[in-house]
Amino acid sequence: MLAVTAARFDADDPLAALEVGDRPEPEVPEGWVVVELEAVAVNHHDLWSLQGVGLRDEQLPMILGCDGAGVDPDGNEVVVHAVIGDPDAGGGDETLDPRRSLLSERHPGTLAERVAVPRRNLVPKPPSLSWEEAACLPTAYLTAYRMLFTRGGLRPGDTVLVQGAGGGVATALVLLARAAGLRVWVTSRDPGKGERALELGAHRAFESGERLPAKVDAVMETVGAATWSHSQRSLRPGGTLVVAGATSGNDPSADLAQVFFLQRSVIGSTMGTRAELERLISFCDATGVRPLIDSVRPLAEARAGFARMLDGEQFGKVVLTV
Ligand SMILES: NC(=O)c1ccc[n+]([C@@H]2O[C@H](COP(=O)([O-])OP(=O)(O)OC[C@H]3O[C@@H](n4cnc5c(N)ncnc54)[C@H](OP(=O)(O)O)[C@@H]3O)[C@@H](O)[C@H]2O)c1
User: Fold this and answer.
1) In angstroms, what is the span from residue 144 Cα to ligand 1's centroid?
2) 213-243 pLDDT, tens digit each
């Protein structure tokens, strides 16, 4: 079958590690099923994999991809939940299973014609979502949903700052937060991306690092070192900083005095549970909010989609159709 793989690692030139070609059919462990994929989507996670983050040499070649939607063996239209974990081992939350992994970390991912997943990882796709829209939800949108509503505990009327407006998770945060009745502020290095975030529903857009007119209830952080101190400065006393990524660097100053003196909460968040993915899909169905798609191209042209992400040109999700 056609698949997109990390054939090697290249920290400096991830596209040099990418191969699009024929791979063996997926192996199907007991209790797993094969999904015929219709559409899949690319995440920054796939670029990390090509750079050797989270994978070891002996796991190569690895089929990339966490996001996908397709048809299960019974003919049902499904969205694939990407977290491979046991809820019982995580106190009812599979993301807290110490042995949890994502598709494409220990098991082959979704950037292929077919993928094998545990049966419990299939979530029904409502007819109101297109294949392309459904394929965007399992990673960036699920992460955003859990950051805002589960880990961040935000309520309608709160003000939230989203750092790095152009990113996949960031656009998901803007769309979901606005649809849920939050006041949404964004930052971006690129004024054009700020403008586009306003078109998506953000109330205000600021340059990266710019002083805000008021402190916010919560900051959603996926950029990391480049925006961390601005995130701290922007938060009201007692506010919440939810962090789910560190694209620009992992190790900024923690500024502990800011944390304790102003009684702030710094909360990590990763992906989400199957139950949260179901609620996210229901939220999209009920409100009409839809994932923002940057571009759609055939799976065979995956390299061009990856290049778009690598160059930071994308605004929204890069989708591949199978
Ligand atoms: N924990 C989880 O479950 C989870 C899930 C999904 C993603 N993630 C992580 O979250 C991060 C974002 O993922 P993504 O898929 O949204 O990536 P992405 O689409 O590549 O977005 C990254 C955004 O970060 C901003 N940025 C990058 N470098 C920057 C810098 N030096 N200074 C300021 N801003 C910078 C950019 O925004 P502007 O150009 O607008 O400034 C860019 O659009 C990644 O590190 C990813 O691994 C984690």
Assistant:
1) 12
2) 999 999 999 999 999 999 999 999 999 999 9
Q: The domain containing residue 172 runs over which residues?
A: 153-268
Q: How far apart are CA 322 and CA 61, in angstroms?
A: 20
Residues 263 and 286 both lie in one domain: no
Digit-coded pLDDT (tens) for 255-297? 999 999 999 999 999 999 999 999 999 999 999 999 999 999 9
Same domain, 247 and 304: no
| Phi, then psi, of 145 in degrees rounded to 5 | -60, -50
Sheet bearing 235-243, strands edge to edge: 204-207, 183-188, 159-162, 216-221, 235-243, 265-268
**Are residues 311 and 296 located together in one domain of the fold?**
yes
Ligand 1 nearest-atom number relative to CA 272? 3
CATH code at 102?
3.90.180.10
User: Is the same domain home to 127 and 183?
Assistant: no
Which of 51, 95, 147, 223 to mutate to test ligand 1, by most ligand atoms within 8 A of the CB atom?
A: 223
CA of 227, closest atom in ligand 1? 33
